[in-house]
Design brief:
The chain is 30% helix and 22% strand. It is an alpha/beta fold and 266 residues long. 35% of the residues are buried. It binds adenosine-5'-diphosphate and magnesium ion (MG).
């Protein structure tokens, strides 16, 4: 009988799971997007999920968010969950604070103000969404997630459309919110460096399965040192993207010797 290969991604470092996906398969018509998938995410653990476009990352995230169907034997999650998508998805006809507490009962302005302050947007409480920059809009959608005090925070490429500097600021913000509120986090990203910079553990989804996992035990804030580069090279390898070894500088052509000097040296 063939032996069963160990599946280490079933065992997070943190023992008590917040999320458990067991033998989960998701099909759209004839196409199987997720196949016999097993994943656990520990309470308070920060997991990043990498995978090619179309590999099923959003499908998994939507399932964990309860937006797509799954039976409780296959998918267990905490009750309090919140999602941040790539686009902020704010209602343009509601002021920022109203967007933040949308769907919550009662007058929640104080709660909205507090969450907006946590993401550095206390000066935009009464603004209209159309007047926000891309980074501010994503901060507002993080505030909307925060007021729900989620035990599971699901982030679907939330920084993908931001410029590089804003993205770095958002990384710091997400890490500080994670430290303060300790939700389990699943961050879907295309960006290998982002995954290594932020997560406790990085998973690679391929062909509906977890192809690889890396525990990132580097101190935060993380710098792109040798260990970081080695993890990056392995992850890029799993994603089918080769990394070239740094090339030795091309030998320099000898400078043409000015005629006068050539003559002088003769
Ligand atoms: N509602 C749907 N109906 C049919 N096919 C879908 C649906 N949602 C996703 N898919 C398909 O499932 C695959 C995985 O999609 P998705 O989870 O969005 O990938 P990713 O987020 O990794 O780019 C794609 O081939 C996509 O076309
Ligand atoms: Mg997606």
């Amino acid at each position: 009988m063939a032996s069963i290969a160990p599946r280490p991604y079933l065992r997070p470092l943190i023992s008590e799971p917040a999320v458990r996906v067991s033998n989960f398969t998701r099909r759209f018509g004839q196409v199987t997007v997720l196949k016999d998938l097993d994943i656990e995410i520990g309470k308070g653990e920060f997991v990043a999920l990498l995978g090619r476009s179309g590999s099923g990352k959003t499908t998994l995230l939507r399932t964990l968010a309860g937006l797509d169907p799954a039976s409780p034997n296959e998918v267990e999650t905490p009750q309090s969950r919140a999602v941040v998508f790539q686009e902020a998805r704010l209602l343009p006809w509601k002021r920022v604070w109203k967007n933040v507490v949308l769907g919550l009962a009662g007058d929640q302005k104080d709660k909205a103000i507090q969450a907006l302050a946590e993401v550095g947007l206390d000066h935009r409480v009464d603004a209209w969404p159309a007047t926000l920059s891309g980074g501010e809009a994503q901060r507002a959608s993080l505030a909307r997630a925060l007021v729900r005090e989620p035990e599971l925070l699901l982030l679907d490429e939330p920084f993908a459309s931001l410029d590089a500097l804003t993205r770095l600021k958002m990384h710091d913000l997400v890490l500080s919110l994670w430290r303060k509120h300790s939700p389990a986090v699943l961050l879907v990203t295309h960006d290998v460096d982002e995954a290594i910079s932020l997560a406790d553990r990085v998973l690679v989804l391929d062909n509906g399965k977890i192809l690889a996992e890396e525990h990132i035990r580097l101190e935060r804030p993380r710098v792109a040192d040798q260990q970081f580069q080695a993890i990056r090279a392995r992850l890029l390898g799993h994603l089918g993207v080769g990394v070239e070894a740094p090339r030795a500088p091309a030998p320099r052509k000898p400078e043409p010797v000015p005629a006068a000097l050539a003559w002088a040296g003769e």
